Amino acid sequence: MLKPTRLLLLGAPGSGKGTISKRLLKKFPQLQYISSGDVLRSQIANGTSIGVKAEKYLKSGALVPDPVMVRLITGELQTHNWLTNKASWLLDGFPRTSNQAHQLNDVLEQYGSNLNMVIELDVDQKVILHRIESRYVHLPSGRIYSLDYNPPKVPFKDDVTGEPLSKREDDNAEVFQKRLDKYNEKIQDLREYYQELGIWRVVSGNTSDIIYPQVEKLVNR
Q1: Where along this sequence does the record place binding of GTP (predicted)?
Q2: Which of 116, 131, 177, 189 lies at a CB distance of 3.0 to 4.6 Å from 98, suitable for a disulfide?
């Protein structure tokens, strides 16, 4: 990675963005990671002015408005001086819509730090639903197991503590299909926006071992 890489990783829920992100961060230690969910939770926990504002929306069941989310993400980048020192970074979870993308781009453009690569993980959604049905979690630690490709050593027991594994309420095909439907409604406009900017790339596959080498190759290029 010879020049700054400002990367957005996109994909349907359950497509493996978290797994791919971890492998990228291990391969490219200079790549900074910004998760919109982590930033939001941190701001709320620290009681910042923008965190308080965001929490009010969440408590009322409303979505956090786009301008607030843009301020959260760009504020995080500014705090670490990642907008002006030509740092390399990876965005996860934001933007999710073309409107958010437009607003984020307007801010990044002011610093000459526009995104220069957007990678969509193209995974068969039938495969995603099957993954979800076979997914179990150790709630205290967050360790995730798949009965198919990462089963616990003892059925339905955590490998480290031996405690029972649980099934999250939304880890079933019917509930998860609704999340996929929402993603599918929004992704086309977002895809077209970044295609027009000439920075959209797609990698296809049904496992992280197939997808990751393609992503690494793009980042290296």
Answers
A1: 14-19, 135, 144-145, 208
A2: 189
